[in-house]
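Batch job 17 of 40 flagged for manual review because the log was empty.
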Amino acid sequence: MSPTEASAILGISRPLVVLRMDSSDLPFRYVGKHRRTRLKDVLELKTKLDIREVAMDALAEDTEDLIEAHGL
């Protein structure tokens, strides 16, 4: 799978996919000059990103509750 195809599944830009590849967050190999990754690896990264997004949403909600309850 190309970085462009992976970016469509992950919902992030192609340059961010390449950055994830370079930082070893998304395993890949070269086919000629082109980077390729497996669908399995893309879906695993998507699961991690989705879990992180849920946690960030919960943290933001808790922060809003603290602001409303304590006037912080």
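Reviewer: the log was empty due to a logging misconfiguration, but the result itself is present. The first strand starts at residue 29 and ends at 31. Unflagging and moving on to job 18.
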